[in-house]
Amino acid sequence: MKNHTLILIIFTTLFLNSCKKTGCTDPKANNYSESAKTDNSKCDYSVIDIDGNSIGAKPIGNQIWITQNLKVKKYRNGDVIPQIQNSSEWSTLTTGAWCYYNDDPSQGVLYNWYAVNDPRGLAPSGWHIPSNEEWISLHDYLGGPSWAATKMKNQTGWSQNNGSNESGFSAIPEGYRLSGGPYECLDVNGKAKDAFWHTSTEYSLSNSKYTSLIHNINTPLFGNNDKRYGLSVRCVKD
Q1: Could you give the dihedral angle defined by the CA atoms of residues 24, 27, 33 and 39, in that order, rounded to the nearest 10 degrees?
Q2: What value does the mean pLDDT of the chain take?
Q3: I need a labelling partner for 128 at 20 to 30 A (CA). Which of 16, 114, 135, 206 fits?
Q4: What digits encode the pLDDT tens for the residues 134-156?
C-alpha cells in the first residue's frame, strides 16, 4: 500500500510539473510569471511612446524589437518634429522632419535621418534606433540573408512574396521619400511596395546607412543614402 502511495505522489508531482504554463520569465515583460518555464521568446512587451501610442514588442534572439514602425510627431522631450510635405522644403532640410508617405495620412510615417540623430531622442525612453550592426545581428539570428526576409515580412500586405512572419517582426511596406521630395516604391494604387528603415549609423557627412525589404527580392538589402531621405524607423530595447 505504501508503495502505491509513493508511486501516486511521484506521478502527481511529475504531472503537475509537466502542466506548468510555458511562458515568460522576464520580470520586465507584460506576461511575466514566476511559475512559467523559461521561454522568453514568448514574452510580451509594450511601450507607450511620447504621443501616447501603445506599441507591441517582441524578443528576437537577444534583442527586443518593436513590432510596428514608429509614428511619433514629437521628440522624447516633447518638442514637436516639423511635418514637411512640400518637396522643395524637404529637399533643403538639415534638421529633423517627418511626413506621411505619398502625403496620405492612412499610410506610414517617414523621417529623415536628422530626426533619427537628433539629441532630443526619437525613440521612446529605454529604446533606441538600431545601428547597422544591430540590423545585421537580427538577420544573422534569423538564419542569414537567405532566410531573414521571409521570417520578417508580414503574412499579408506585400504585392509579391508575403512572408511567414515567423520572427514576429511584422514588416509591412511603407515606401520611402527621395532627398528631393518625390515618393518612391508606389504601386498602381499609390500604395507602398517596399520597406526601408534608417539605421543610426552615419556613413559620411551627407549619407547614412539603411536597410530594406523589397517586394520581389527574398533577401534584406543594405546601403547608404542621402540623410534627407524619408524612411521608416524601428526601435530596439536598450
Answers
A1: 20
A2: 89
A3: 206
A4: 999 999 999 999 999 999 999 99
Domain coordinates of the chain in residue numbers? 2-41, 45-237
- Residue 35: how many CB atoms within 10 A of its CB? 8
Strands 63-66 and 176-177: unpaired
C-alpha cell at 83: 511635418
Find, among 34, 236, 14, 2, the residue nearest to 126 by Cα. 236
**Cα–Cα distance between 138 and 131 in angstroms, integer?**
11
Cell 514574452, residue? 43
Q: What's the DSSP call for residue 216?
A: T
CA distances from 215 to 23, 121, 152, 164, 199 (A): 34, 31, 12, 14, 20
**Tell me, what amino acid is at 109?**
V
